[in-house]
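Dear support,

I submitted the protein below through the web form. The confirmation email said the job was done, but the results page showed an empty box. After a refresh the structure appeared. I'm attaching both so you can tell me whether what I see now is the final result or a partial one.
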Amino acid sequence: MNILYCGDKNIEDGLVISVLSLLKAVSEPLHIFVMTMDLKLERGQISPVSQGTIRYLDNRLKKQNEQSSAVRIDATGLFCAEPPLANMETRFTPCCMLRLYADQVPELPDRILYLDNDVVCRKDFGDFYDQELSDSELAGVPDYYGKWFFRKSLFHMDYMNSGVLLLNLARIRETGLFARCRTLCREKKMFMPDQSALNKLADKKKLCSRVYNEQRRLHKGTVFQHFTTSFRFFPWLHTLTVKPWQIEQVHEKLKLHEYDDILQEYTAVMAELR
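What the results page shows now:
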């Protein structure tokens, strides 16, 4: 199974937790690819995911299955060649858009599962990963809130959340989907630029069950839980954002102990890495 993560050094906590959760869910070989950047911008320095973290992940993966691996891919040059100029100053960091350069990385395989760093795996995801894509460019799950507001058709909720995406890179390279998304991000300022571009320009996408990207509350059938911002109505209307590495808040605000064994290993690991 090929897995893609994207981001700078700030994703390391979530990256470690997410990979540990994958290891708990499946026993077959996992090939982890991490696209990252080393870039100085007016808004500040973007530092890459450290080699130390990648070495730990590679060793941890091989401990379970010697055929597994973790590698870091420097995407700085690709990003600088086609920067998303219209969206460089949005609240979404430039690293959020790195996945849109995946088609230009030759070592990335034709089928790869992209995960945000705040996605935790709860069950074997083989049926999702191995699904038939044929000529579809990608497969994912409707955005919990966005499907109501950003859909193209009144009767078809097709606005997809980009935190869990099964990518058919072979097809994407043929259709030029990511190339067109990069152009749109360069020319037009958008809310959630990469997600908006993908939804606007993808010609063929498969919509799957929410169990593969649960964005609100854990359910019995949840395979991937995505720790996104959600709305809460009691005791008043407010938003709630809790990430997996915020362990006290996971326990106190979400009342969630599902991943305590993973979080315990993560805590020990990060104490060493830091």
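Response: this is the final, complete result; the empty box was a page-load delay. Residues 29 and 65 are 6 Å apart (CA to CA).
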